[in-house]
Amino acid sequence: MEQLIPVHVGLLGHIDHGKTELARALSEKVSTAGLDGHPQAKSRGITIDLGFSMFVLDKYLVTLVDAPGHADFIRSVVSGTNIIDAAILTVAANEGPMVHCY
């Protein structure tokens, strides 16, 4: 059996722009830390921690790294960047790109 090549893809974008739903739609397997497993994430309806899920595409084992989109959780996003090989930037079609200055 051929060994799968691991690829880590970050899902990045503003809060409520569909990152977690994209991960949910693509994933074949969700880790215990995947897709809003944090209790506060469920109660607040937002991603707080990095979420991990995966699927196989041809000879690749693709791990999706679902990152929080809220600026308050930027540390979680930065901590996950060292494992990300590529990224998908999600933008809500009804809102467009969102830039916030603090």
Task: Name the helix and strand elements from N-terminus to C-terminus, one letter apiece.
Answer: EHEHEEHE
Q: What is the strand tally?
A: 5
Strands of the widest sheet, in order across it, are 2-3-4-1-5
Name given to the CATH architecture: 3-Layer(aba) Sandwich
Summed up, the helix count is 3
Q: What's the quaternary structure here?
A: single chain
Structural class: alpha/beta
* Sheet having the most strands: 5 strands, mixed
What does it look like?
Helix content is 21%, strand content 29%. The protein is α/β, with parallel strands linked by helices and 102 residues long. It has one domain: 3-Layer(aba) Sandwich (Rossmann fold), CATH 3.40.50.300. It has a five-stranded mixed β-sheet, covered by helices on one side. It is globular. The model has no long low-confidence stretch (mean pLDDT 78).
